[in-house]
Amino acid sequence: ITLGEGSKGGAKNGRPRYVEPADREAALAAVRYAQQITRSHPEGYLVTGAAGTLLSACDRLRNTVSRAGLVGMVSMHSARYRFAQDRFWMLLEKGYSELQAKKLVVQDLG
């Protein structure tokens, strides 16, 4: 998956980056579902906020996730941590050294 579009015209620091998901089919299904949702919104965004700004969209997402009970061990931060762990072990299984795997995970996380 290539990450290249965002609030600043690209991924962190404006650089697109490639991330290899552990489960390609599940990742593609999630991206297709997100695209379906964005097509149903006039603005074309997945999440919008009351003020129409990126900050208000982030606040809305954070509040929605919290109301859904995704806190603590199942929070967005925990999901990011789990992604990092899964990605690290997948890279080791592919034959990367620990140092190489750590560097790639750091790159993936931005």
Structural account:
The protein is mainly alpha-helical and 110 residues long. 55% of the residues lie in helices and 4% in strands. The protein has helices at 24-40, 54-67, 76-93, 98-109; strands at 2-3, 17-18. A two-stranded antiparallel sheet has the order 1-2.
Series of secondary-structure elements, N-terminal to C-terminal = EEHHHH
Gyration radius, in Å: 16 Å
Largest sheet: 2 strands, antiparallel
* Total number of strands: 2
Keyword list:
110 residues; 4 helices; 2 strands
Quick summary:
The protein is mainly alpha-helical. It is built from four helices and two strands; from the N terminus they run E-E-H-H-H-H. A two-stranded antiparallel sheet has the order 1-2.
Secondary-structure blueprint of this entry?
Blueprint: E1 2-3, E2 17-18, H1 24-40, H2 54-67, H3 76-93, H4 98-109
Antiparallel strand pairs: 1-2
Helix pairs in contact: 3-4
